[in-house]
From TrEMBL:
Family that this chain belongs to: Belongs to the helicase family. RecQ subfamily.
Protein name, entry field: DNA helicase RecQ
Reaction catalyzed: Couples ATP hydrolysis with the unwinding of duplex DNA by translocating in the 3'-5' direction
Range covered out of full length: 1 to 527 of 721
GO MF annotations in UniProt: DNA helicase activity; hydrolase activity
Cofactor(s) recorded in Swiss-Prot or TrEMBL: Mg(2+); Zn(2+)
Gene name tied to this protein: recQ
Source organism, top-level taxon: Bacteria
Every Helicase C-terminal domain range: 219-370
């Protein structure tokens, strides 16, 4: 790097963007790319990845071509650039031919600083030939983890981006992502032909975010009491899996005095745009959304992100929680998760289209998520460890603040597992958690009578634990791989290869104590 590129970058930063200094690795990345080098950039959400390609696009001769999968956001991104005087445009499938022709003309005339392009455009030969007729300052590949087949967000169109290196060997390329495990990082390097690139890996830690995970009891009440006691009047995002849950939760919160609005793909696009605009503009708006919400939204003072359903992967969870506290001020990532989440997700995986490898991948993502939920050590350590970064216990997560007591759950596990085994061996039957717990607690339900399960030798041997505590045991055994959800689609439970050691007494089982944690926090909502 030279002094002139460094000062040109700094001059651009202050003149165009109005900032007076670079943050973190930004200056180094920018100098490297201005100098013509390739770069792989791993930085958490909010760290400022965009400037890493925007500034070099302005300093270098020609147009910066930005590949982004977020077509819905291109328009906003381009408007934001135009607002600060950058000549930007996009090419994607939502445009009509005249609009496209105008963009193409501007590009060929060398009048664009930035051109956002959808990945599927770049796999077409005609687009590549068109780009070749102009001057390219650099290629920026945003959300680069989408090239990873093992990641959580694979997009086949990204595979075609490997060709950029062959076709434009002299044009620098910069790949950026906010979520990459070590394996995904390797895959990005390999699949995008980034062998010569310089790698910039920022710490993924977001120290101002407090991570907390509670067992799900009455989730809406838990959520309300969390918001009331800690984030009254704050802006936040609540994530749920289904549109139905989104609607109902938003209604419930609104009826209880929270300024909450629903957001999901089933709503009219005008309404969605209004909702998003209100969230950005007004203070203290809470959006209840499916995962569709939040990508690319730059609101620095989101004070909390809540998950009321279990996210499908740690990557997804990290990305979503990362939308809290971009301003660096204290924020909370709160989640409630329960046994039903596990059962439901297993079912979805079993029923998902795609081959066995695909289901295994989904399964591995779920397992990592469960491990985070059930850990007895620091959540942040677990999270950062997942992304290949070592750290010390953080002092700012629930397990650090209130270390969970653990207890010897070996006998409880044996009682549960032997009930599963007996039903299977003696009666050729399989059941879900609810009925198994009824048997252990000796609860005379209709089903118990029907199947004469009061005659089982494990009938009523588990009265020392409450129903909720038993559900906790089941959840933790699932997370530890000592119990599994059968793939029959009914959520019945079966033992695993590792269960035998527990049943024979050669393996002890440590479980975390939890039930009372819910009741003591925030008053209402415990069950
Ligand atoms: P990312 O893409 O990594 O999630 P963004 O590029 O959207 O992050 O940047 C997040 C916010 O930080 C934006 O509002 C951006 O303008 C701001 N920002 C980035 N770099 C700087 C800087 N050097 N000085 C001040 N603000 C910055
Ligand atoms: Zn911690």
């Amino acid at each position: 790097m030279t002094e002139t590129t460094a000062s040109a970058a700094l001059e651009t930063l202050s003149r165009v963007f109005g900032y007076d200094s670079f943050r973190g690795d930004q200056a180094e990345v920018i100098d490297h790319v201005i100098g013509g080098g390739d770069a792989v950039v791993l930085m958490p959400t909010g760290a400022g990845k965009s400037l890493c390609y925007q500034v070099p696009s302005l300093v270098r001769h020609g147009t910066g071509v930005v590949v982004s999968p977020l077509i819905a956001l291109m328009h906003d991104q381009v408007e934001a650039m135009k607002a600060v005087g950058v000549k930007a445009a996009f090419l994607n499938s939502t445009q009509d031919p005249t609009e496209r022709a105008g963009v193409e003309r501007d590009y060929l005339a060398g009048e664009l600083d930035l051109l956002y392009v959808a990945p599927e455009r770049l796999s077409s030969e005609s687009t590549k030939r068109f780009l070749e007729s102009g001057d390219i300052a650099l290629f920026a590949i945003d959300e680069a983890h989408c090239v990873s087949q093992w990641g959580h967000d694979f997009r086949p169109d990204y595979l075609a981006l490997a060709e950029l290196a062959e076709r434009w060997p002299d044009v620098p390329r910069i790949a950026l992502t906010a979520t990459a495990t070590e394996a995904t990082h390797k895959e990005i390097t390999q699949r995008l032909s980034m062998g010569e690139a310089k790698h910039f890996v920022a710490s993924f830690d977001r120290p101002n975010i407090q991570y907390r995970i509670d067992p799900k009891v009455e989730v809406r009440k838990q959520l309300l009491s969390f918001i009331r006691s800690e984030h009254s009047g704050d802006a936040g995002i609540v994530y749920a899996m289904s549109r139905n849950t989104v609607e109902k939760t938003a209604q419930f919160l609104a009826a209880n005095g929270v300024d909450a609005m629903p957001y999901h793909a089933g709503l009219d696009s005008r309404l969605r745009a209004q909702t998003q605009a209100r969230f950005l503009r007004d203070e203290g708006v809470v959006i209840v959304a499916t995962i569709a919400f939040g990508m690319g939204i730059d609101k620095p003072d989101v004070r909390f992100v809540a998950h009321i359903d279990l996210p499908k992967s740690v990557e997804g969870y990290y990305q979503e929680t990362g939308r809290a506290g971009r301003d660096g001020l204290p924020s909370t990532a709160w989640m409630a998760y329960g046994l039903n989440d596990v059962v439901q997700q297993r079912r979805m995986i079993d029923e998902s289209p795609g081959d066995l490898a695909h289901r295994r991948r989904l399964s591995a993502h779920l397992d990592a998520m469960l491990a985070l939920c059930e850990t007895v050590s620091c959540r942040r350590q677990n999270l950062l460890g997942y992304f290949g970064q070592k750290s010390e216990p953080c002092g700012n997560c629930d397990t650090c603040l209130t270390p969970p007591e653990s207890w010897d759950g070996t006998v409880a596990a044996q009682k549960l597992l032997s009930t599963v085994v007996r039903l299977e061996r003696e009666r050729n039957q399989r059941f879900g958690a609810g009925h198994l717990v009824d048997i252990l607690r000796g609860k005379r339900t209709e089903r118990v009578g029907q199947w004469k399960h009061d005659e089982l030798s494990t009938w009523g041997i588990g009265t020392e634990l409450s129903e909720q505590q038993w559900r906790g045991v089941v959840r933790q055994l699932l997370a530890q791989g000592l119990l599994a959800v059968n793939d029959d689609g009914y959520g019945t439970l079966v033992i695993t290869a590792d269960s035998a050691a527990v049943l024979s007494g050669s393996r002890a089982v440590q479980l975390r104590k939890e039930a009372e944690r819910v009741a003591t926090r925030g008053g209402s909502g415990s069950g």
